[in-house]
Amino acid sequence: MPNSSSTSQANITGSETASTSYVNYVEMSAEQEYFLYELETTDSGSMGLVLRAIYDTGDVQQFARALQQRISHYDKNIQKVCSFHYQSFVDAMQELMQLKEQCQDIKDETVQIDAEIQCISQRLCAKKQEIVRYRKLMKNAKTAMDQIAVCLPVLENYAKLQELMSNKKYYQALKTLEELEHTHLALVEKYRFTQVLAKSMTPVRLEIKDKAYSEFKDFLENIKKVAGRIGKHASKDTAEQHSFGVTDAERARKIQEEARKNASNVEIEVSADGSIVKKNVSPKRYPQAQVEDSPSFFQDDEQVSAQDLIDFTPVHRCCQIFNVLGAKEEFEQYYRQQRREQCDLVIRPSHKMNNFKHYVEYLDEIVGFFVVEDQILMTQSNLSTAAEKDKLWDNALLKIRHHLDARFGGCPDVEMMLRMKKVILLFILTMKSYGYAVAPLYELLQNFRDQYNEILVKEYCAQFERDLDKDNYTPITVNSEEEFRAVIRQFPFYKRSMEQEPFPRKFPFSRFVISAYTQAKQYLIGCLKFMDNLQLNTSAVDDTVRRCANVLLGRWAGILKSFVYKRLSMIQLVQITINLGYLEKSCESLGAFITSKTSGEEAIGTTSHQVVLSEKVFRDVRSEVEQQIDECMRSKVDEIIELSNYDWELPAAAGQASDFITDLIKFLLTTFQSFTNLPSGLAKHVCTQTCKHISQSLSDLLLSPETKAISTGALDQFSLDVMQCEMFTTRCPVVGVDPQTLSMTFADLRQLLDLVMSSDWTTFNAEYGKDHAKYLRVKASTAIVVLEKMIEYERKSTGFFGIARGDRKRLLDTIVRQLKLLEIQ
């Protein structure tokens, strides 16, 4: 039967497979076959579209027949499948009947086992009740033992508390108290003896709190005592780290000593090939005493910190105690209040701060105070915050700056200010190393810098005045090469031809120039000393030094202006003018000197500066001196001309120049020869102005209202004197002066004399006012004055208005009338 079944199954499978294939019917078109395929495979939502397409074709009846054939075909296939699975269904029903019998056997066995279990369970329950009764007895015994064990720690901890209080171990006592109160008493609070213990806890807490406050006050007192030592050691460490106050020579010496010390432990030798190799030597053993006596041993011993000088245990203990007591905020407020008050005490300077040592001690105490504050902040961050520390420092900083400015701001001693600047700078570096803001202290140092520079300026101005008074106002003369090189080293002067000159050689300037230039460089070096380590960049330092140099040069210019208004000789004025010219040229060398000190030698000539050395201050002074030279020359000329004592009624000329003219020309020759080193423009200007003044003074002498009559002989003598002056202009010793231009200064006077002495009135009247006139420079009013004085002389001496002279009288009257008409025109 199984074989038949499998055979039939194979046949049915083949028929089923065949039935699932589509059969082409003669009456069914391809389009209808496509519609049937779409209905079978598409979802219900697209079925309406398929049906609409069927109706649109118009052949609905034929499609219905094809659909009916397809349905019949599928029904046949279903019947074949059911026939194929029928035998399997029959076999399955038979297997279920067999399973029913087996289940009934299992049920009978289960009922039997259940009866046995019920019997055993009854015996087990009896045993269980007996076990429960025994366990209850054991639990009661254990509970009694536990209660006794709980009470024993309470009594033991209370005894321990009393012992700790007597030994002044308050924090341990407080921890024991907390443990007793919150751990042990809570377990046995139902007993009456715990109530007595609880009442005694509050007095113990208050006692611990009072003792903690007392210990903290002792700690604050200890801080006050050792703050100075802490600050001193902190400043010392900062100075060593920054090599503060150590010169380059000392730093190099220390490096050499360290290298020598390291090299002493290594022995070397030169090998055959010339290289250096170490020797294989055993290390030397030194006795212990020698190591302890070495300098490094004491240096290590001196390197102490705030923890070494102060025991911070009381602070930590107090924080722990108040934290346990629940009064943490109360202790923090108390701590900050006490520190603020202590800070005010430290910052307030004592009345005996009258020397440098007191200032150092004052700043060391401040450093020590804030070092301790910084240490407390690192170890107990809850006591003091960074904001509180900065606020405390900011308030202190304002007071520190005020006290230093008030007590030290008026110091007149430069060296004292330099020392104080170093102390304040070390204070700044120390506080900065601990993270404190120090910008206001740099501003304070800058204020001190201005005061320091002002004191320096006053000192060098006083020295400048002394050099002015001591100068001999003569060019420097050197007699040997050493002296010549010494001057060149002191002042930047170069003249190629001078090195070829024989000795003795003369420099154009006096000793005053070298002294002023040297003093200026020393002043600039003094300014740089104070600006060292002031947090200024190279450009700012350079510009600041240049401003200071301009201040000094301006002050010196003011001193020179005041000095030249004293009664100085012509030689002094001329030498001062020459000196000023070289001082003005030296400003460029001073600028290079400043650059070399601030930026280095390599930066000279390559750096642009916002502040330029003001050379015009010397130009202004030089213009003042030039005016003084002009005035001095005019004054000297006036003095000589005042000695003229002319006899205006002289019958005949003496045939030679007057004595005062000879003296005047000698004076001019001597003076103009000293103008050799003067600037060419100045020498020509002074020469020209002096000749103009001589011409004007002689004209004033001729036209003076005090002279009523002039003789022909006097005119001849006056003309001879003027001729001497004209001859001087042709041989003037001043280089660069045009003799023709210089002789023109006497042209007005010469034309006037030629006119009146030659009586060429016809030509004068005919050409008056024309550009090519022979007497172009003569005014009619001037000619009238001279002519009237000549008429007055003739009237006084010869009886001018006699009958014999009537024709000349009419002629001269006619000339005077014509001149007056020309004057009116």
Automatic annotation (TrEMBL):
Belongs to which family? Belongs to the SEC15 family.
Please list the coiled coil stretches: 89-116
**Protein role:** Component of the exocyst complex involved in the docking of exocytic vesicles with fusion sites on the plasma membrane.
Q: Which PANTHER family match?
A: EXOCYST COMPLEX COMPONENT 6, SEC15
The alphabetized UniProt keywords are: Coiled coil, Exocytosis, Transport
Report domain Exocyst complex subunit EXOC6/Sec15 C-terminal positions.
440-789
Organism, by scientific name, is Caenorhabditis briggsae
- Mind listing the GO biological process terms from this record? exocytosis; Golgi to plasma membrane transport; intracellular protein transport; vesicle tethering involved in exocytosis
What Pfam families does the record point to? EXOC6_Sec15_N, Sec15_C
Provide the Exocyst complex component EXOC6/Sec15 N-terminal domain boundaries: 67-234
Q: What is the lineage of its organism?
A: Eukaryota, Metazoa, Ecdysozoa, Nematoda, Chromadorea
Q: What is this protein called?
A: Exocyst complex component
**GO CC list:** exocyst
Q: Domain of life of the organism in this record?
A: Eukaryota
Q: Which InterPro entries match?
A: EXOC6/Sec15, EXOC6/Sec15_C, EXOC6/Sec15_C_dom1, EXOC6_Sec15_N, EXOC6PINT-1/Sec15/Tip20_C_dom2
